[in-house]
Amino acid sequence: MSAPDLAEIYEFAIKLARTGGDMISASSSNRSANSSSTSADATKKNRVDLVTETDQAVEAFVKEQISKSYPDHSFIGEESYAAGEIATLTDAPTWICDPIDGTTNFVHGFDHVCISIGFAYKKKPVVGVIYNPFLNKLYSARSGHGAYLNEITRLPLTHPNPHPLPFLGDALIGVEWGSDRSKNVVEKKGRTFMRLAGDPKEIDGGVMAHSLRSIGSAALNYAYTAAGQLDLYWEIGCWEWDVAAGTIIAQEAGGKVYGRGGQPWQDEDIQKHYFFVVRAIGDTPEEKGSDAQDRIAKEFFKAAEEWDV
Prior knowledge:
The chain is α+β, with helices and mostly antiparallel strands and 309 residues long. The chain contains 8 helices and 14 strands. 35% of the residues lie in helices and 20% in strands.
């Protein structure tokens, strides 16, 4: 099989995302008109891991369109996996889709919701599109061509001059509670959040970061980090469909992604459930931006507690 035409795939992914986003918007309007209960939806794992008919319909549409246009390509989707399909990422051209990232937000009418479509070749994400139809914000990238907001504005938003980040304490940090609410996980997250937010005068290891943000969408956390609106984002327990598009968007915006514990990113990390990303950081006379990203990662993991997934 010849190498895929990434320019063509990029345009196709954008069209898919916009159409899928229209489906999400239309469904949200119908839910509001019919006063759907937030407790009426099926669950995948537990009562906070929700799935709706819209998730399933959007993924079915995306999968069908890809099959028609690229019948030799592989497909990994959140709802397909939930229905029993095996999610194995190989060297083959592979589409990786989360039809609605932020389903709980969608159910509650909280407008941080998106469709996320990534494309990987030889196990590397090389095209990514994240579209929030409620805010009309589309984040996109293809390998070697930069990342953009709404196909026009280069990312990060301060491009070509990303801001420095002298200390972790100066950061706005993306975190999530996630769907695993077991005692062990909640306690470790709670202690991590306390150290990140807490005053070091009173909390051992306290960082007193500017603030923490939990918006309920891994894909949008990656997009906001790519844009430079979040300084970094950490989560354990996500899947490849949550982060594939965001990974290439962040990288093309000058961000740096890491594996477990802040280790250098390896291709196989896309399926290992440990994710950390730092925005582009500008060079200073004292420090290169890439070194600053590594420094921030080290500072962060002094405060963070991890667990096995």
